[in-house]
Every structure is written in C-alpha cells, then in structure tokens.
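Example record

One chain of 414 residues, shown exactly as stored in the release files.
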Amino acid sequence: MSPSKRFSAMPFLIASLALGIQLSAQTFSSYEPPKNIGAPVNSSKNDFAPAISPDGSYMIFNSNRYGKYQDLYIAHLKDGIWSEPEPMTKLNSPYNDETPFLSADGTVLLFSSDRDGSIEMPKDDRNQIRVSFDLYWSKRVDGEWTAPEPLPGDVNTQYHEKTPSLSRDGKTLYYCTWLFGDMNRTALVQAEYRNGGFVNPKPLPPPFNTGHQDLALVPAEDLKGFFFASNRPDSIGMFDIYFVSYRNGKFGTPQNLGEKVNSRENEIFLSRADQRYYICSDRGGGLGQFDLYSSFVFTKEAAFETRAIHFDFDEAVIRKESYPYLDALSQFLKEHGDARIEIIGHTDLHGTDDYNNRLSLKRAEAVKNYLAARGLDPKRFTISGAGKSQPVVNQTGKGFDELNRRTEFRIMKK
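Predicted structure tokens for this chain:
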C-alpha cells in the first residue's frame, strides 16, 4: 500500500486536552536562554530545523555535515543523552531534504526536497535548470518510515515550497513558498485536507504576508496560537521567533519572544514537546554554522502535562533521563512559591483498571517525593492516579502507548 493510500485515513487519531494555557512573550523572559545541545547532535556544519517527537524521545533534523546537500537525520534521547545522529537513508535523496515536521501523533513526517521529480521552473535564458523544492511525506508504520511521496493535492508548484507543518487534527497544512531566487517575496500559505489531498491553498491573512519574510509557522493549539520566524522591524537580530495568538478565528499581534530566546543573529524553527522547547540558531559560540538549542518553559496560569517523566517498566522508579525536566520544574516552583500543584499519573491502556490506578498513583507519589527532595514543601502537592481512564488516544501499540503514559500537573486555586 502506498503512503498516499495509507494517508487517506486523515485526520489523525489524536486528541487534545485543550488545557488553554495562556502564553505571552513575557512567559519566556524569566527563563535561562536556550542551551546548545552540543555534540554529537551539533556539528561543524549546519544543523537545522529540529522536529521533536510527541514524547520527546527522538529528534529529526536536517544537516549537511557529511556533504554538499542537506539530509535528514534522527537522534534518540537515551538516559538523558542524545545519541549519534543517523542519516534517514530511506527518506534522503541525492539532493536537499530539509525542514522536517512531525505530526501531533508522531506518525507522519513532512519535509521539503528538491529531489528529482519535483516540479521545476523552465530553464533560464542561459539554459540552466532552476530546481524547485516540493513538499513530501512519509508515514511511520511498525516503527519504520515508508518511502516518501509528494504531498497529494495542489500545493506543489514551480515555486519553492518549504517549512511544512500540520494542525493537530491533520486537517490544515501550513507552509511557506517563494519564487526561485526571490526569497524576499516569501508567503505563508494554508491548505485544507479533503478527499485524500491538500487543496485550496491560500495566503494567510494579516498579520502575515506583509513583506517581512514570515516562515516556519508551527501550530500551538494548546497555547492558543502559533510560533513562526520573521525578520520584522522589531526583530532583535535578523530572523527572530515570534508567537501570535489565535482566538475566535482572529490573529492577535505577533510578539517577539525577546532576548532570552532571540539573539543578534538568526533564530528559526521552534519545535516543542510539552514544556521542552528547541530552536536552531547561528548565534556566536556554536559548534558550527546553525546549531540546535533547547530550553524548558513552564507557565503557572493553567494545567500542563508532560511525557518527559519516565519510569522503569511496571515500576514507580523515576528514570534518570527524567531528572533534567524535574529539576527545571523544581526551579520554576521555587521561583513561584505561591503555586500549589496536583500531580496526576496516567498509564497506557494495557492491564486492569485496579492495577493501573495503583501504579499511576505510585508514580505521582514518586514525582512528589522527587520535588520535595529538591527543597519544596510537600504540602504544596496533592497526588492522584487516573490510571487508564483518560487516554490521549484510545488505542494501544507502539506510538500510542507512549502518548498515554504521561504526568499531568494542575494548578490548584487558593
């Protein structure tokens, strides 16, 4: 079965808790600047466009570390350390493959490529080929990525199509496009998924497409808005990362994320798994040209959840790869001493209700004990175990189990 036929089951089987977290640029001002991920992920060349899996356990990005062209690479987070990136040979071509994006459930990978078969412009007056980037996709089936195919529908043209992203339900595609050799006329476009393809592409309304080279739009439905990159007049450097709210069908005013995120150079491609944020930047002090950076960002205005807290199988022992997240959370709670938290454990759908209720409660208690051991008053926390009663996805199996195993934090009102 071809990827096109497999993808006819869109939209994705993913649900949102719709926690309604309120976000502003000021949210980022109280956190440490993003830190360079370092080797082996970053190299002496360009390492670009991080796409993070829903549980944060792996990252797909593009790099030209071993040649002239950009290839897609995958790195895994094991015991708190990123593995040596491996080229995704089944997806890569002899030319450029770049700007990957993972769907909300981690089963679909979008990217841009100028491989053979992409729609090209006619040769110029010197008989030179003018290559074009088109959008492609692949699906993860039984842990393996299928051979990529051009995105079905009418989004691919003679123009460059790059930086694809999808809404959480898979019904809306976002991407940027520009004419060969004229990036100054970059446009952000959206298309809708109907009858097995993405159709009806149209430019996004203001505040986008007003002459500022907006690109890399990433939906953040749980934050009620979008992240994107732009070289707007209020940018700190060149390209900066912005957040724009989206409520009741209307966009707000784009907000620059500020000096804790942006620098005097370029910051592009914000990606996130819950409160773990990743960007790429060519700021000074990196290992190469563009490097990948990460940070933790929490908010006390509403509930949030994470899949960054891992346990041994059938146990309530926190694994050490969870420590950086919990340490960042403990620091956040120390700086917001008035915040009281309910910790709720969730399991996958395997096993009995009674067993999962007990296990999830023990795991919530383990999180409470870890935070208390970092100097936080245990009275600030209550715990409960939801077991398997509130799944994100009502399915079992690889990819779905990981989404359902999570820890939720609810802000308790005074």
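Notes: DSSP finds four helices and 27 strands in the chain.
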